[in-house]
Design brief:
Number of domains: 3
Shape: globular
CATH architecture of the largest domain: 3-Layer(aba) Sandwich
InterPro entries: Epsilon_tubulin, Tub_FtsZ_C, Tubulin, Tubulin/FtsZ_2-layer-sand-dom, Tubulin/FtsZ_GTPase_sf, Tubulin_C, Tubulin_CS, Tubulin_FtsZ_GTPase
CATH topology of the largest domain: Rossmann fold
Main location: cytoplasm
GO molecular function: GTP binding
Subcellular location: Cytoplasm, Cytoskeleton
Low-confidence stretches: 220-226, 285-290, 440-451
Mean pLDDT: 87
CATH superfamily of the largest domain: Tubulin/FtsZ, GTPase domain
Pfam families: Tubulin, Tubulin_C
Length: 451
């Protein structure tokens, strides 16, 4: 049995991670009625590293019902935080805590018989998640160059209350492009839209009915957590993404997908490793007049904008590859039938028409008969990056708040120009691919993009 190590960095990373562990334990207790610590549990649990430069969230975890899950030697906190400054997280704390972080990563890796993957969870807008999170990512590459690095990155919305979030995000983007094998971008605004839609549907239900306790946005009474907090609904959606992607490693399945295969099969060009996640069911609530989704409908939903965790339209852009990770009682023939049905409406690059990767896990999420996670390597991520570049440029043109960064030892203005240049060339690479839509693409440009 292979194992993975989950690394949670910053307030958001630890809150999402906390929801993941809570929901994962609920899943395992649902399946493993005798409460035995089996192989499926040991493939993930106790293989975690929690890092935050404030104590609040980690202390909350240690004092809460999840405290037994974590080894306290695998936690690293400070008291002052990074002040929403990428440079403080990346340079100051990254240097001060380098040895301790490496030691904790090595210790977590030593617990594994066959280490398959590192999952890093962080946000892009704050200081610790973006700065220290990407420093940890580069340390993972240094220390474990052969082990796959899959990053779940939460991107800030345009109305983010952290005024420097465009700086932090663009500085972090360069690190993600250089050091990650796969990035699953999740936009805060998409999560807000999904939760709002679910709550709106819930309010339209009959009086006295509430959102189902085991829906995708609520941890449920079966979980270990106490009352819901404001961001729990959004964090639970991201946790459900992580539950789906790790289900093959945690449970049996007729067509289990090796996590290394995600990067191997979905990333034809090393830098273009941003995979658009979409989840279904998201809107199936017991109290709302939405019928249980038929299997074929679930596949259609996974390719609709409403179910994506970033605001984009993949059907109008170009697919490089796509993975479908299905949970529940689903047959390989169901997968094949739906891929054939959907294929004509999905614009794939001419040289990878067969670019589908599939996985089947027999254990469905609690409360559902089946679920589907689609991961699309698609040029539709480009508008998200263009919008981020515009927000960065707006601040940078005025040199607003720049002095806060340049006061940090090791931080120079060239870091900003290199980061925006890296983002610009990434956007350009997606743009070139988009331009080939509908034409036969010769081999030469493919090679030049992969440099």
């Amino acid at each position: 049995m292979t194992q993975s190590v989950v690394v949670q960095v910053g307030q958001c990373g630890n809150q999402v991670g906390c929801r993941f562990w809570d929901l994962a334990l609920r899943e395992h207790s649902h399946v493993n009625k005798k409460g035995l610590y089996d192989e499926a549990l040991s493939s993930f649990f106790r293989n975690a590293v929690l890092v935050d430069m404030e104590e609040g969230v980690v202390n909350e975890i240690l004092q809460g019902p999840l405290r037994e899950v974590f080894d306290s030697t695998q936690l690293l906190t400070d008291v002052s935080g990074s002040g929403n400054n990428w440079a403080v997280g990346h340079m100051t704390y990254g240097s001060a805590y380098r040895e301790q972080i490496v030691e904790k990563l090595r210790r977590a890796a030593e617990h594994c018989d066959c280490l398959q993957c590192f999952f890093l969870i962080h946000s892009m807008g704050g200081g610790t998640g973006s700065g220290l999170g990407t420093r940890v990512l580069s340390l993972l590459e240094e220390e474990f160059p052969e082990v796959c690095r899959i990053v779940t990155s939460i991107y800030p919305s345009a109305e983010d209350d952290v005024i420097t979030s465009p700086y932090n995000s663009v500085l972090a983007m360069r690190e993600l492009t250089e050091h990650a094998d796969c990035v699953l971008p999740v936009e805060n605004q998409s999560l807000v839209d999904i939760v709002s839609k679910i709550q709106h549907m819930s309010h339209g239900a009959k009086p006295g009915q509430v959102i189902r306790r085991d829906s995708a946005i609520i941890s449920g009474r079966g979980g270990l957590s106490a009352a819901e907090k404001p961001f729990d609904a959004m964090n639970n959606i991201v946790a459900n993404l992580l539950l789906s992607i790790t289900s093959s490693a945690r449970f049996e399945g007729s067509l289990n997908m090796d996590l290394n295969e995600i990067a191997m099969n979905l990333v034809p060009f090393p830098r273009l490793h941003y995979l658009v996640p979409s989840l279904t069911p998201l809107y199936t609530l017991a109290d709302v007049s939405v019928p249980t989704r038929r299997l074929d409908q679930m596949f259609s939903d996974a390719f609709s904008k409403d179910h994506q965790l970033i605001r984009a339209d993949p059907k109008r852009s170009l697919y490089l590859a796509c993975a479908l990770m299905v949970r529940g009682n689903v047959q390989v023939s169901d997968l094949r039938r739906n891929i054939e049905r959907l294929r004509p409406s999905l614009p794939f690059v001419s040289w990878n028409q067969e670019g589908w990767k599939t996985g089947l896990c027999s254990v469905p999420p609690v409360g559902h008969s089946h679920s589907l996670l689609a991961l699309a390597n698609n040029t539709c991520v480009k508008p998200t990056f263009v919008e981020l570049r515009e927000r960065f440029t707006k601040l940078y043109r005025k040199k607003a708040h720049l002095h806060h960064y340049l006061h940090v030892e090791g931080m120079e203005q060239s870091c900003f120009s290199e980061a925006i240049a890296s983002l610009g060339s990434l956007i350009e690479e997606y743009h070139h691919l988009d331009a080939t839509k509908g034409t036969l693409m010769p081999d030469a440009p493919r090679l030049s993009i992969s440099r």
